[in-house]
Amino acid sequence: MAATASPAYAASTDGPVTIPPSLTGVIGGGWSIATNFGANGLPLGAPTAARSTATVVPIAVSPPRATTVTLTLSGAGFSFFTAATNATFTATQSVTVTTASNGVAAVYVAIPPYGKGDTVATITATGNGGSAVSTLTARTAHVYAVGGHTPEGQTGNGSSRNAVAWPTPMAIDERLSSVHASISSYLFVTESGRLRTGGYNPFAEVGTGGNEVSVLNPIEPLKKDGTAFTDAVRGIVDTCGSEQGLFVVEDSAGDWWAVGEQVSNYLAIPGDATGSRSLTQWEKIGGNLPAKPATLSPNRFGDTLVWSLEDGTVWFTGSSASFRNYSNGLPRTAVRGAMEQLMMPDGTPVAGVKSVKQSEDNSVMMLTTDGRLLFSGTQATSISPADYANNGNVQEIAGPPGTIEEIWALHPLDSTGGAYFAKTSDNSLWAIGSNGAGRGYLGIGTTTPSKTWAKVLVDDVKEMACGAHHLLVLDNSGDVWFAGLIDENNAGLGTGLPVHNPTPMKVTSLPPNARTIAATWYDVPYVAY
Fold first, then answer.
1. Which of 33-42, 180-189, 208-217, 358-367 has the lowest mean pLDDT?
2. Do 403 and 425 touch, CB atoms closer than 8 A?
């Protein structure tokens, strides 16, 4: 899918030269920005044009013939370009084009990011003995890629430029119900129940039917039978990314589907007992489980998934060689394709669990239906919750003040840097665990680990997401906040910022009123409107 940001227009024969009297584009459309802006609003340096999100301006002359037409722009930050590919170009507000023999030509207009120029421009076309004027008005895009590691198409606008410094709109022209991300790719669920994916694809998680590395424009992935989703209800992937190429969705019938990594049958597919392969298109999963799954969480990387089922039990699937990192109630012998129920130290099953999350490769946290927290793990003592054993026993731990409504897990850069977050009913967000070895990605105002729950310094929180180095928080007013390490411009605030940001800062380069967020493990935030 390579959607343009403006409607298509038929060639006109009304007058010596014509352009549509009104056009609509998206804020940031046509730019894949890795530069700053000068006093006149135009970018300094050499930005990259992304045609798939730019606004096309159709031109026609009457009588039809080949002739030159000059166009000018007024509007800070707006720029013409005529390149047929995503080649580097020089920003300009004046361009001359030659119509074809049928009298038709087209140019593209790049619209500046939010706060970096105007939102309305005037286009004047002169030639063939006449002139015409158009008003171009910008709107907010349906979703933006904010920055981070983007050379394999994570910006979703046809470009392969890395480390974009400003939020750039993606070629998605349908409102989304949710956004999700894995190691360095994205999954969007539209309000009509369809899917859009793109980005990094070596584990086939984009669902193209193969494992090509780069998917530059969003595609609609297909099921194994060749049909597309029309009834996706929700994405079931960890909203804090993961160094695993895996996406999972649920359909309206309650069936679960996956695409991407399948290691030691950790997706519990009947008949795939010990298989390790890539699911290149969507396949049904979870059929080996004793009850319908409710939540699913990957670890940082490897061969283990943890599930909570609708009956409140918790199960691990994959290779039991890794199970011992989580609980003394799980096997110590290495069995591929294993499926084991998580147990309490007295041998009784863990029960009443509403949601389960695992962070790095050594711990798991569970939220029960009555608001309690259970924890199991063998992570380092310095970041394990205070006064609790790190010997793998499942135990109840103290939660933050208030009633817990939701939990998240961070998948860190280091394999023993587990961290967890909990949102309470008063819309406060709390963090515990590793703080990224000085990166400050807990957002609590310090770069040191926290063995007790510490409040994230953002008020009225709606949801959160994070990559390997950063935290992203969306508040209920629609503002987005960033904390942690700025790596490859993942804050989307331009260049020259402090590297470490333990106190969250508002991403003022995004339009207001965001609705939902996600982030890849490799630090590309996604913000939907």
1. 33-42
2. yes
Taking residue 157's Cβ as centre, other Cβ atoms within 10 Å add up to: 36
**Nearest alpha-carbon partner for 330 in 239, 393, 418, 257:** 393
Q: For residues 49 and 30, give the distance between their C-alpha atoms in angstroms, rounded to a whole number.
A: 5
Give the other-Cβ count within 10 Å of 504's Cβ: 24
The pLDDT of 140-155, averaged and rounded, is 95
Burial classification of residue 305, based on how many CB atoms lie within 10 Å of its CB (0-12 exposed, 13-18 middle, 19 or more buried): buried
Q: Render the burial of 8-22: b for 16+ CB within 10 Å, e for the rest.
A: ebebbeeebbbbbee
Backbone angles phi, psi at 53, to 5 degrees: -115, 5
Average pLDDT of span 317-327: 88
**What is the per-residue pLDDT for 1?**
37
CB 123 within 8 Å of CB 106: no
Average pLDDT, stretch 251-264? 96
Cα 258 from chain centre: 17
Question: Any idea of the CA torsion for 383, 387, 389, 395, to the nearest 10 degrees?
Answer: -110
Cβ burial of 428 (10 Å; 0-12, 13-18, 19+) is: middle
Write the DSSP string, 346-409: TSPBP--EEEEEE-SSSEEEEEETTS-EEEEE---TTTSPTT---SS--EEE---SS-EEEEEE
pLDDT, tens digit (0-9, with 9 covering 90-100), for 90-131: 788 999 999 999 999 999 999 999 998 999 999 999 999 999
| DSSP 8-state code for residue 222 | B
Rg (the chain; Cα; Å): 25
Taking residue 425's Cβ as centre, other Cβ atoms within 10 Å add up to 10
Closest by Cα among 494, 477, 485, 496 to 519? 485
Residue 315, C-beta contacts closer than 8 angstroms, at least 6 positions apart: 289, 290, 306, 307, 309, 339, 340, 341, 342
Give the phi and the psi of residue 283 in degrees, each rounded to 5: -130, 150
Closest C-alpha among 384, 401, 402 to residue 393: 384
| Contact in structure between 242 and 263 (CB atoms under 8 Å) | no
From the centroid of its chain, how far is CA 416? Answer: 24
Residue for token pair 């004046």: 94
Whether 443 and 500 have beta carbons less than 8 Å apart is answered as no
Nearest CA to 247 out of 215, 279, 292 is that of 279
